[in-house]
Amino acid sequence: AAAAHVELLSRQLLILLQTGAIRAAEMVQDDVRLHAAKVQSRVNSPPSDMRMLVRVSKEMALVRQAPRRLMVNEGLILFARCKYTNASQYFRDALNQQRLDLITVKPSLSNSSPSNHTPQGCPTWKDLTSPTLGFDVEPSLIFECLNNMSLCLLYSGHMRSAVQELEGLIREDPCRYLTEGMAFNLCTLYELGSDGEECSKKKKLLQRVAKRFYLHDVGMESFRLG
DSSP secondary structure string, the chain? Predict the structure, then answer.
């Protein structure tokens, strides 16, 4: 319930920020902090008869994202107050935590053995690792963090840093990070920071990377070559 409150309140906070009600959003964020702390407390200090349930619940996106969502909210509030450098740090920290989750959660799933470890009457790890147990949310905040961080760097005049960070993630794992949104944002930054010929070369190189890794879901329009 606490993790669900974090998600629902965060949506309310975003709506308030979009309408310019920054002070009201900060009040909602106070509630988000309380519920995120409850999530963390329950995950870290489970009763003895709930250890299996909590261990598996750590792998649920809704629970796992609670502290990351808190950080993203902090960044959004700072962004609304035009504190772009501070906001970008929150988004970067949330992004790095999400990347760490990708490393730690998958091995724990592959090592799980439901038939040997799930007590009778308890949900299986497959039941509990569904992304959000009915909530329609993204299983990862990575791309939200990326988009927000690149905007912060752009608004604060650090366009080159924004390009370097996005390119670095694509080099790290093209199949994961080179999405339509990432390609579009990066190509937009190329247009803002490069002359015509250099910009076109960078866009075509990015397009070749997408083709090299068979990223067919990244459409031509994402590269802004028209």
Answer: -HHHHHHHHHHHHHHHHHTT-HHHHHHHHHHHHHHHHHHHHHHHS--GGGHHHHHHHTTSHHHHTHHHHHHHHHHHHHHHTT-HHHHHHHHHHHHHHHHHHHHHHHHHHHT--HHHH--TTSPPHHHHTSSSTT----S--HHHHHHHHHHHHHHTT-HHHHHHHHHHHHHH-HHHH--HHHHHHHHHHHHHHS-HHHHHHHHHHHHHHHHHTT-TTS-GGGGT--
Instruction: Convert the pLDDT of each residue in 27-70 to its tens digit.
Output: 999 999 999 999 888 777 655 555 555 555 555 778 888 999 99
Place of tokens 């994961």: 176
Distance of alpha carbon 30 from alpha carbon 191, whole angstroms: 39
Confidence (pTM): 0.78
